[in-house]
Amino acid sequence: MTDRALCVVRAGALTTVQDLGRPGHAHLGVPRSGALDGPAAALVNRLVGNGPEAAVLETTLNGCAVRPRSTVTVAVGGAPCRVAVDSRPVAWGAPVRVPAGALLEVGAAMSGVRSYVAVSGGITVEPVLGSRSTDLLSGLGPPPLADGTVLPLGRATRLHACVDVAPQPSPPAELVLRVMPGPRDDWFTPAAVHAFTSRAYLVSPASNRIGLRTEGPALERATTRELPSEGVVLGAVQVPPDGRPVVFLADHPTTGGYPVIAVVRAADLPAAAQAVPGTPIRFVAVRRR
Fold first, then answer.
1. What are the start-end ranges of the E strands in 228-273?
2. Average pLDDT of each block of 10 consecutive residues along the chain (289 residues)?
3. CB 57 within 8 A of CB 81
4. Is the pTM for the entire model greater than 0.90?
5. 246-248 and 211-215 strand pairing
6. Is 59 helix (H, G, I), strand (E, B) or coil?
């Protein structure tokens, strides 16, 4: 039994292992996966002295609790939340020493959706296709955490950062998504295309790691015939039969049979990962570079 491990005491609603994902396998039907809020995951890794490729924990809404078998440095970022070690409050957004056997509690998100927990040395579950990420769609990678799960840790090789609190973006009060039109915007009526970029939508509670679903005006199609399945990319805005746009996130399918009206710029997707249900959404059309 190794002493470099985390024991999961409370798994939370949905806590998964995530890293940079497994890009480059879409031709095999394998999604990219990886941390939905990439900048938040990268920041907590830097705070504990990990490289950007190290795997972290991604929590959803109500956090988690873990107990390390050896003394480690941890950092929690992303959605703001209360953090405690053996019931004593410690800093969020900064490196924290957690002694062997102590209980690290990551509380419920006070705003936003997903918090990220980095541990010095990184989480070293067995990689699949070069990544340790959990993929909810394909089932690749480790399953979502359950109470009692034991996660192996790597050896820390670098010193942690020396900061009191690292600045992080606030979860969005309004989600503004810049979109490039197409490739199937011509499958919608002119009125629908106008409504897409001029009317307000809301984040649906049915959103998940696969896609951000919306509530709002239905988009009417000009072309009603079936669309043969074609490749879809991260950030694609697909419109299913109910007419409400769905923004594809990290665990999205690699092909789809519904028309894609636009594609969200990659730089705007981390904010989508932190948009709570009911958050207003505006889609803003931009020109292709």
1. 230-231, 236-238, 246-248, 255-256, 260-264
2. 89 98 89 96 96 97 98 97 98 96 98 98 97 95 97 88 80 96 95 96 97 97 90 96 97 94 97 97 86
3. no
4. yes
5. antiparallel
6. coil
